[in-house]
Amino acid sequence: MDTSEDLPNYIALQSVPDRKFDILPGASADLTSMTFCVKEEDHTLGNSLRWAIMQNPQVDFCGYSIPHPSEAKMNIRIQTTEKSNAIDAMDKGIDDLKSVCQLIKAKFQQRCQEGDYARIG
Amino acid sequence: MALEDRNRVVILEDRVENVSGAEFPMSFDGQETAFNMESFKDSFDIRIVRVTPTDIEFDLIGVDASIANALRRVLIAEVPTMAIEKVYMINNTGIVQDEVLAHRLGLIPIKADPTEFLWKHDGSVPTDQNTIVFRLDVTCEANRAAAPGETDPKKKYINSSVYSNQLVWDPKGDQSVRFESNPIKPVNDEILITKLRPGQTISCELHCEKGVGKDHAKFSPVATASYRLLPEIQILEDITGDDAELFRSCFPDGVVEIVEERGVRKAKVVNPRKDTVSREVFRHKQFEDKVRLTRVRNHFIFNVESTGAIPPETLISQALDVLMEKCEISKAALAAAVKSGEEDE
Fold this sequence. Notes:
The complex is a heterodimer of chains A (about 120) and B (about 350).
Chain A: E1 21-23, E2 33-39, H1 43-54, E3 59-65, E4 73-80, H2 86-114, E5 118-119
Antiparallel strand pairs in A: 1-2, 2-4, 3-4
Chain B: E1 8-11, E2 16-17, H1 37-43, E3 45-51, E4 55-61, H2 65-77, E5 81-92, H3 98-106, E6 110-111, E7 132-139, E8 141-142, H4 153-156, E9 157-158, E10 161-163, E11 168-169, H5 175-178, E12 185-186, E13 192-195, E14 201-211, E15 222-235, H6 241-249, E16 256-261, E17 264-269, E18 291-306, H7 312-344
Antiparallel strand pairs in B: 1-2, 1-18, 3-4, 4-18, 5-14, 6-12, 7-11, 7-14, 8-9, 10-13, 15-18, 16-17
Helix pairs in contact in B: 2-7
């Protein structure tokens, strides 16, 4: 997997498995319902990604589970209307979550710079 | 449900109601709740309350609990720091066994910027880019200058207690130049590592590596990272006279004050932040139907206390970077999974 050199790499590449995403058997032929199995992820990404995906009006259902606590796997299921499909919904959810993080970071740094708070010590 | 009540958790005498939110498209009749970045931008805000060299308190307003919780979880378990990972014991005649001593050493927070270091993968050799080396060489001996009959070990012996400031940084490669302005050392000087008595000695070499809290708690950059929801006290009907005094005494100091309006003493909520949401008011019959205790579901009061290795403001930015990196990795992995799925067909 390529990661840009200039970005500080917070996540160790050895902890990123070769097949991080898997599409579990049982997806519908029109791709509107699908379960993804994400390796090496937990509630941190699971719950926030579920929230981001559920904001999409084309998504009928989205839920996640961690089938067993000693396996580093997170399953996330998406069902969409016929106007979209689960892969697009997942892709959009990831993008939206990233934008939300970006916005929070920008706002946080703006507030830090404004310095409108008590600084002790 | 009224628009404003949607994001209130209601605290009742014997239960808590309206706990989970439903801010999703089509949840409410006739309301446009579909997510879009523009309206999120408008409703979302951050207010920094207090910053010290190790602590930060800030409000995260207008986000879902899953985002606030992801931020908290990343702070605890996924922001990398440097910590002692390998201890090469050359000599240890103290009473603390090698493995216990090594564990205690591992827990010492190290003041080093982890972004300056690379990950050390299994099997890769230690270099100046991925390892920090410390030495610990101490021997305890009798203090000849001590008064006869002295009973205090600190005066009677030299090095009777070994503290974290006795770790000596051994710069490798270009480290002495790279960290000239900010020499690497333990965050706190006075962490007691072990105790020794005359004749006992410890000699070891310590290697620090980059790691994350989910691997071992010693890598966690925070002592605590938590959030709570902003309490809100709604006075539905004026509370006056002696009742106002009683009402004020139901809350911690500074939450409710008494104001005089046209000669009538009236209870007024001035700082709900300080409230502990104790439900004391519900014990008094006269306040029934006059007060409602709630919490604002999308107003998170974050409290983050750093171990001192990374400044708290930097910590928050880094945690958000980690989340974004997770998104990037996931996006690429999703594309790869879809591609391999197409090839199989």
